[in-house]
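G.,

No rush on this.
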Amino acid sequence: MGEPSARSGLAACALAARALVTGSRALAAHAARALSVRARVDGERSALGRGAGRAVVGDERGAASVLAVALLGVLGAAVVFGVRYGEVVVGRHRVVAAADLAAVAAAGWIEQGAARACGRAEWVVRRMGGELVSCVVSGVEVVVEVRAARGKGLGSVFGAPAARARAGSGEG
């Protein structure tokens, strides 16, 4: 039987391995020639155009697809973060508006007593989808604290949005 042909890269590698095991200089020289011929053939094929040669180590075909998928993943995460951040900001604005309106409503009912003023504040806050945390009447001033209602999906890493507002009846 003859020596393995230089046509196959695998056969050339097997020839080189056999040369190392046997210690034959002639076989090693033949394997080196076979490998260099194989490398030249692969280089010529890849120079002919895309798809003409076979993939060799260091080939970068397909790298753009992987990069595009990674960039789409980053873009998707940024969109999700932006939407979530927008929800929290809008929820915070709604809670602030509810606190302001509740304080003004309570200030308008101070003359009927603290219990009725705070009852009106709670009614306003509930209608706006919030939760009244506290209502303190002192003289002609009302201070209310409002938090986003549980189950509205407005909680964030820092907790549910909350706001405090103060209003007075204008008398005194």
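When you get to it, here's the other one too:
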Amino acid sequence: MRCNEDGFWELATTGTDKVAPVWQARGGEELPRLIGKGDHLTLVHNGYLKEMSLYVNGQWVDSIELATPFVATGGVQLGRAFLDDTYREYLSGAVDDVRVYNGAADPELIQKISLQTREQLSL
């Protein structure tokens, strides 16, 4: 997940985390909230369906079909990207309430988590 050149949230992925990969990007219709509570972003990797999906504030934005299973040789990166053998694209903002699940979350669960997160932020 990242903001594209036009400033919209998008799902961007490669088939590997090696140097000079080929990128696929989808989405790009939802602007990040610059003031207030921020956005609840969800990335779902479904290995069975070979797809990655982006949800913004509980709503599905887009999916990318993966031609092959994603092969990662390093850890999960939050707030930055590891591109061409170096860290780049640092997040200008804050990260809160990170969750990693063993399995693909369904749309109903994503909506419930997004609603819970927004309710907690309003307290």
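The chain has a mean pLDDT of 79. The longest helix spans residues 107-121.

Enjoy the weekend,
O.
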